[in-house]
Amino acid sequence: MDNYLNKIREKINKNEIPIGTHIHMRENVITEMMGDIGFDFVWLDMEHTVFSAEVIQDHLISCRASGLASFVRVPWNDAVLAKPILELGPAAIIFPFIMNVEEAKKAVEACKYPPKGKRGFGPKRANDYGLMNVDDYLKVADSSTWVILQIEHINAVKQLDKILSMDGVDTIVVGPNDLSASVGLLGKTNHPEVKKLIDEIATIAKELKKPFGTSIGYNLRDIKYWIGKGVSWIAVGTDMGHIISSAKKTLQNTRQIISGYKLFNF
Question: Distance between CA atoms of 34 and 32, rounded to whole angstroms?
């Protein structure tokens, strides 16, 4: 099943930056819209939403229909939580709050079949609902879903060279807010101490030639900052944010137009 991960890889190989956006709402038509608009991927968040595996499946169907790669963040670094998502065949699976080498290894093992890992066999949508030959599926299964580790704690930064050197870690994503919290500066992502950690992450990733991405809100200054740091991919803005921003602009502009007219009194 084509999950469009190769489109992401091809862009990065051509020194282009794939652009995604975050999905926090249940309605999978929103994901379809994001694909039609032209985003490269969507970040489907199970960590901070009420998304179930059924909801994720609906969004993945919309991804396939609109040519989007799907990055799914599971709630925690737990093989039990990751397994049903892997069976759906997403382009990438994101493990939050990786703290050290041991946790990174645990995440990788959850995604790889033996002998590389400990994943149990039972694909569903990932092998076209059984239409794909088992041998053919096993040839590509371990490489068909990116393993993304979220680096959002100073402890992980201290072990980042070892984490990124681990076989099976495809890319990392920086979580600026929780990273700032880990040094007692929650929300102060522009603080020099936090920026120093981000610089360190970027430097190590570049030295080890591993792609790294970031997950941020829609802010032009922040986008320029992260592009300047050399990110390989970027997830920016949210479905809720897009709706609120556009709705506020629509309301404000309409009010402004109305205020310039003398209204008819009945």
Answer: 5
State pTM to two decimals: 0.96
Q: With respect to residue 178, please indicate whether it lies within any of the assigned structural domains.
A: yes
Predicted confidence (pLDDT) per residue in 112-152, tens digit:
999 999 999 999 999 999 999 999 999 999 999 999 999 99
- Asked if residue 255 belongs to a domain, the reply is yes
Q: State whether the Cα torsion 245-69-18-148 is positive or negative.
A: positive
What CATH number does the domain containing 55 carry? 3.20.20.60
Q: Considering only CA atoms, which of 90, 102, 96, 54 is closest in space to residue 75?
A: 96
Amino acid at 233: W
Told to judge if 242 belongs to the known catalytic residues of this protein, a careful annotator would answer no
CB distance 233 to 18 below 8 Å = yes
The active-site residue out of 48, 59, 153, 242 is: 48
Residue span of the structural domain in which 86 resides:
5-259
Tell me if 233 is assigned to some domain: yes
| Placement of tokens 């994720």 in the chain | 56
Q: Look at the chain and report how many structural domains it folds into.
A: 1
**3-state secondary structure (DSSP) of residue 44:** strand
